[in-house]
Design goal:
Blueprint: E1 14-16, H1 20-40, H2 46-72, E2 76-79, E3 83-87, E4 92-96, E5 100-105, E6 113-119, E7 125-130, H3 136-150, H4 152-163
Antiparallel strand pairs: 1-2, 2-3, 3-4, 5-6, 6-7
Helix pairs in contact: 1-2
C-alpha cells in the first residue's frame, strides 16, 4: 500500500500507511532517552538515582512496545463511509463519524505530530500519533471532510435547519 493516498477520493476507502522511517526515529529517540537517564543514574543522591533508573526502564519498555507493534504490523488509519479505523496492530476499532469531530493537528513530539479530535458524546479529547509520510494537517483536512460528509448527526441537523 503506498504512503500517499488519493486525497480527492470521497467514497470507498482511503488508507494512510505509516512511514517506517518515522517509527524508526521514534524508537531511536526512546532508546536515546533511556541511555541518557541511565547515564544520569550514576549520582550520589539516592532519589535521583532511582528516578533516573525508572525513567530509563520506562523508555526501554515504550521502545520495546513500539518494536513489537512494528513487527506485528505498522498502524494504519483507514477512512470509510461508516467511520475511521485506527488499526494499531494490537487492536482495530471502527470509530463512527457521528461520534467524533474537530480533527486538528496536536502538539508535535520532535518530528512526529499528533491528530487531535473530540468525542461528541463525552466531550473528551483524543489523539492519534501521525506516523504517516503525509503531514498531519493534510490528514486532518481529509478527516474533517469525511466527517462532514458521512456523519449522520450532521445530516439530521441540516434537515432540521431546512425545515424551519
Amino acid at each position: 500500500m503506498p504512503n500517499q493516498p488519493d486525497l480527492s477520493a470521497m467514497s470507498g476507502k482511503v488508507i494512510y500507511s505509516p512511514s517506517g522511517r518515522k517509527v524508526a526515529l521514534l524508537v531511536a529517540f526512546l532508546f536515546m532517552l533511556s541511555w541518557i537517564c541511565f547515564q544520569k543514574s550514576n549520582t550520589y543522591d539516592e532519589t535521583a538515582h532511582r528516578l533516573a533508573l525508572c525513567g530509563a526502564g520506562l523508555f526501554v519498555l515504550f521502545a520495546v512496545a513500539f518494536l513489537i507493534q512494528f513487527f506485528r504490523g505498522l498502524p494504519t488509519l483507514t477512512l470509510t463511509e461508516s467511520g475511521f479505523i485506527w488499526n494499531t496492530g494490537m487492536s482495530k476499532d471502527l470509530r463512527p463519524w457521528s461520534s467524533y469531530c474537530n480533527f486538528a493537528v496536536g502538539h508535535p513530539i520532535g518530528l512526529l505530530e499528533s491528530i487531535r479530535f473530540i468525542r461528541k458524546d463525552t466531550g473528551a479529547d483524543g489523539a492519534i500519533l501521525n506516523v504517516s509520510a503525509l503531514p498531519a494537517h493534510a490528514i486532518c483536512e481529509e478527516l474533517n471532510a469525511w466527517q462532514e460528509r458521512y456523519s449522520k448527526d450532521d445530516a439530521r441537523d441540516h434537515a432540521n435547519d431546512t425545515s424551519r
